[in-house]
Write a structure and sequence with these properties.
heterodimer, A: alpha/beta, Rossmann fold, 12 helices, 12 strands, globular, B: alpha/beta, Peptide ABC transporter ATP-binding protein (chain A)
């Protein structure tokens, strides 16, 4: 029995710019269940970070949510007041950003910042909050927590600051943790430590994690499910195994092909995806990947339908749709749809 | 490849930065960013330099470009020492050694158009004139996958990948022999990284270029490099052919670094070696010298 934690329905977000509306997210629907780790993958401009910010109600003008519905435990999030949000944000939904340098207050000690959060959200007294803060630091792998609590952010390295941010996010025992590129700015060895932390979290708690990244290695190692975004739309969605072993969208296939293979002949030529992502000021009406797709045909200039291949494995592609229609004649059953 | 001549010879290179000075201007604390590094790069090869931030890999690159004066040691380019040369003596080398940096957003002058950007180094070094120069720029632009009509556009009109192509065209405009690539693909999207890497490889064989490829993306470094050096705390701890290094790492830091590469295969979990235990050995390792343990494989172990 899985518990539906978050559901996003036809989310659309756009930003007003001097040159027109930048349609960053153009109709995105997905869900996250309790205890899941979902990777949201895409390159810059795919809409993955904007989607995360929309969930957290952090879209600021000139940006706005133009359509769609976001529900958290069956409660509508879109349209909540800032006051109602305050009891939710940090407490039940927490977010970790990419850059740990700018998300901590530089003139306040780490301990102050951590205990403030713990006291506000968990209602502990000062001593208990300090003890809890120390426990959290230890849990994210920071040694000598009592001493560390008395230090300022500049006395921490980048990796440690990111761990402090994660400790802070986790200290309120949120039901959903949204991590936006949490390891991108970090060294490989530190990245591996942080990902271990996420894995432990996955095993030891019911916290669901939405991990936004462009690194397929991170996804392969940590996530249970993957959402692949491109040009403001979800191109493909499925379990890690679906995405890595049975990709059914040309963009996913291209992404997987373009990373160098480990092990094999190191000088094998890479297979890039030629071209550049679409301009979202004037997005193509059809498939956003059409221009770069090796299989594109006439029909791709219309927006493709989302086809459910196996339960939970969906692809937005005309190619899949035509194949699916043919096989559907042979094998009836296995109805799709939400 | 092993028969080709040594183009760049780095000999016990040291670069220290002052962390503080007393009232007489003497250093009170010194940061040893690069602390005795030696390696050779042969003509036509790609030498990869990996290590975490603060390991000194970018400082080595900047020393080879002579953007820094050396604290100690020497770098020989094509047999000639660079360390003591003044700006005038350096000028021919400024042409022969070029660079590509990580961030194509900040490394291009935003007020110049593409033609001006690419022809600026040609102007400085007196290569081509007038219409001929413009033709050369247009040809280069096409060579890096851009179009002639982009000549009069400005950097803000291009994507990150396209800007990096402009940087590459600019670096190649003066026919260099050696290019220092400092994290040239780190800021680019995955699907674009492969485009740029393939292009760098094509240009290398076309123009006979030699690369120093500095990066922290370990799988891409293996792909592009013939040989790789691993830096840790300002020292080289291991140097080997790239496949040899990945298949048979000897130094504990190299092992830890390689074990942190994330498998892009969900069924293969990587057995990660934690670094914590190693930091204590760091001082001892810092003293060890590189020794050749098998042909071409050097490691700094006691």
């Amino acid at each position: 029995m899985t518990k539906r934690l978050l559901s996003v329905e036809d989310l659309q977000v756009s930003f007003a710019t001097r040159d027109g509306e930048n349609q960053a997210v153009r109709g995105v629907s997905f869900h996250i269940d309790a205890g899941e780790t979902v990777g949201i993958v895409g390159e810059s401009g795919s809409g993955k970070s904007v989607t995360a910010k929309a969930i957290m109600s952090l879209i600021m003008p000139p940006g706005r949510i133009t359509a769609g519905n976001i529900e958290f435990r069956g409660e509508r999030l879109t349209g909540l007041s800032e006051k109602e949000w305050r009891s939710l944000r940090g407490n039940r939904i927490a977010m970790v950003f990419q850059d740990p340098m700018t998300s901590l207050n530089p003139v306040k000690k780490i301990g102050q910042q951590l205990t403030e959060v713990i006291r506000r959200h968990r209602g502990l007294n000062k001593e208990a909050a300090v003890a809890e803060a120390a426990r959290m630091l230890l849990q994210v792998g920071i040694q000598n927590p009592e001493q560390r609590l008395k230090q300022y952010p500049h006395e921490f390295s980048g990796g440690m600051r990111q761990r402090v941010m994660i400790a802070m996010a986790l200290s309120c025992q949120p039901e959903l943790l949204i991590a936006d590129e949490p390891t991108t700015a970090l060294d490989a060895t530190i990245q591996a430590q942080i990902l271990d932390l996420f894995k432990e979290l996955k095993e030891n708690s019911d916290t669901a994690i939405a991990l936004i990244t462009h690194d397929l290695g991170v996804v392969a190692q940590v996530c249970t499910r993957v959402i692949v975004m491109y040009g403001g739309l979800i191109m493909e969605e499925g379990t890690v195994e679906d995405i890595f072993y049975r990709p059914r969208h040309p963009y996913t296939e291209g992404l997987l092909r373009s990373i160098p293979k480990r092990g094999g002949g190191s000088r094998e030529r890479l297979i890039p995806i030629e071209g550049t992502p679409p301009d979202l000021l004037d997005p193509p009406p059809g498939c956003p990947f059409m221009e770069r797709c090796p299989h594109a045909f006439a029909r791709c200039s219309e927006r493709p339908p989302v086809v459910e291949l196996t339960p939970g494995h969906r692809s937005m592609c005309w190619l899949v749709e035509s194949v699916q229609n043919q096989t559907a004649v042979h094998a009836e059953g296995g109805d799709s749809g939400e | 490849m092993s028969e080709s001549k040594v183009l760049v010879d780095v000999n016990n290179l040291q670069k220290h930065f002052s962390k503080g000075k007393d009232m007489r201007g003497r250093d009170t604390a010194v940061l040893k960013a690069v602390d005795g590094v030696s390696f050779q790069i042969r003509q036509g090869e790609t030498f990869g330099l990996v290590g975490e931030s603060g390991s000194g890999k970018s400082t080595v690159g900047r020393c080879l470009l002579r953007l820094y004066d050396y604290t100690g040691g020497e770098v020989f380019f094509d047999g000639q020492p660079l360390g003591k040369l003044g700006e005038k003596g350096l000028k021919p080398f400024r042409r022969r050694i070029q660079s590509i940096f990580q961030d194509p957003y900040s490394s291009l002058n935003l007020s110049l158009n593409v033609l001006e950007l690419i022809s600026e180094p040609m102007k400085i070094h007196g290569i081509y004139k007038g219409e001929e120069r413009k033709e050369a720029v247009a040809a280069l632009l096409e060579r890096v996958g851009l179009k002639r009509e982009h000549l009069y556009r400005f950097p803000h009109e291009f994507s990150g990948g396209q800007r990096q192509r402009i940087s590459i065209a600019r670096a190649l405009s003066v026919r260099p022999e050696f290019v220092v690539c400092d994290e040239p693909i780190s800021a680019l999207d995955v699907s674009v990284q492969a485009q740029v890497v393939n292009m760098l490889e094509d240009l290398q064989s076309e123009f006979g270029l030699t690369y120093l490829f500095i990066a922290h993306d370990l799988s891409m470094v293996r792909h592009i490099s013939d040989r790789i050096g691993v830096m840790y705390g300002g020292r080289l701890v291991e140097v080997a052919d790239s496949d040899e290094l990945y298949d048979n790492p000897l130094h504990p830091y190299t092992k830890a670094l390689l074990s942190s590469i994330l498998e892009t295969d969900p069924r293969k979990g990587s057995q990660r070696i934690r670094l914590e235990g190693y930091s204590g050995e760091r001082e001892a390792a810092a003293q060890a010298m590189l020794r050749e343990v098998s042909p071409g494989h050097y490691v700094a172990l006691d």
